[in-house]
Every structure is written in C-alpha cells, then in structure tokens.
C-alpha cells in the first residue's frame, strides 16, 4: 500500500472514530415507549422532540449547509419517515431508530466532522428490498452528477429502508407505496445527474432512462398492466421532451415471477408476450418500430425474492416487481 493510500485510509478511519464518538456522546431524543404513548402529555413531549430536531436541521441550513446537501437531506428524510410512522402509531422500534439516524447526522454536521458516513443502515431489521433500485442509487455516488442529485439519492435510500420495514411488518401490500416513492426518487436522481452543471453537447455513451411496466399474475395483456407503472413509463418518455433528448433506441426485456417454476418454458413465453404488449404500446406512443428491440428472460432475473411470504395471495402481490418489462430508453442529445 502506498503512503498516499495509507494516509487516506487513516484519515477515513479517524473520521469514522470521531463521528462515532460525537454521536455516542450526544444527547439523543428518546421517544416515549409505545406502551406508555397513551396520554396527551406523552405525545406532546414526543412532538416537542420532533420539533426540536427539525429546528436543528433548520439551523444547519441557516448556517450555510444547503437543503440539497446529501447529509442534510438524509437527516431530514430520516426525520420525516420517523414522524410518518410515529403518526401512524407504529409500535415498533422504527420511529425511534430512524429518528436516531437523523440525529447522528445532525450531530456530525454540527461538530464539523468530515467525511460524514454515506452508509444507510437497515434500521429495525428492515428487509433490503428492490436491490435493483439500491444499485441504481449506488451508481450515482462518486459521479460528477452526484452534486446535483444528492437530495434525491439520500431520500431514495431512506425510503427503501422505510419500505423494507413495512415489508417486514405487513408484507408487500403495505410496502408498495413507499417503493413507488423510492422509484420516483431514483428517477429524479438520474435526471438530476444528467442535467448537472452546464448541459453537455453530447451525453455520456449509453445514457439510459429506465422504467418498469408491471403486470398482474399470469397475465400479459394491456388491461393487465398496473396503472401506476404505466404512468412511470409515460413520465420517462416525457423527460425526452423536457430535457431535449433524442431517443436512439429502446430495449425491452420481459420477465416473469417464479410461481410457475424457475426456468419453466411457460414463464419464458409469458415474459415474451409481456414484452410484445409493451412494444405495441410504445409504437402507439409514436416510437419508431425500427428503434425497438425486445428480449425475454422468463423467471431468470428476480429482483424481489419474497422468501417466507404467505398466504398465496400475499406472495403473488409481493412478487409483482418480477412480473415486469424493463424499458430501457437509450438517449443522446
């Protein structure tokens, strides 16, 4: 290891130790235990704690740290999901642990610790759902465009943890709204990355806008598409006009869930029919047929495992991210 690399490693380790020391020694807000959260006085005390934490975030912003800053945004989003679940009477440890994550970052910023951590803990044992979305957010870290996408990346990561917590508590039906929010953050983050700074005359090679069109179980027709996923596709198509992008080609990849048996020929054919359905929809939206290609993978690429989910209806709902057609819009400027 070179001297430079050793110095950088030591600096990172020392910063981590400093951050841990500051956050461990700080006075953290303690919410009333769920079993005691039954009086107006207790609830008022908790709300006062939330207001105080919000005030600390505002003070950091007033002191010059912009709202779009990754760590300030993340502190705000941890605070928001904590309060959201507290307001919904979540009796688990999630509201407290999410609030604590917010305060850890606040303390680090108040004390001027650098670098601050960029990890996103799965608080309250949250499931790590939608690995594909985690990867898309992770790919933005360290790029020049991250400077413009910090808020969306930070909040997307926190919202995925929020969804994973809901998945553990009440399975996929309750996690789904937060997954949709996370998908929106991911899309916004990627758009902010593309538009960051002076708009380049030419985009980086193979710039891709992505949307997933989702289907009902064992279905492949137009009426079997989940409406919100079609809206996601239309939003990505609208970005072409908004950002002045030229569509070079469209790549469709059909998928199926695992319920007909992994690798089964039936799922291969089902995933192909889904890709064909989405292709027809794109042609109706004015996309040149010569620019659209499709392939299909059956159940060979599952983005949501849903291990242990029962009964069957809940399992089918949980597996819906796998019943998808990936729409990859390859663009240039």
From TrEMBL:
InterPro entries: OmpA-like (IPR006665), OmpA-like_sf (IPR036737). Residues 202-333 form the OmpA-like domain. It comes from the Bacteria. The keyword Lipid metabolism does not apply. SUPFAM superfamilies: OmpA-like (SSF103088). Gene3D superfamilies: OmpA-like domain. The keyword NAD does not apply. Residues 1-26 form the signal peptide. Keywords: Membrane, Signal. It holds the Pfam family OmpA. This is OmpA family protein.
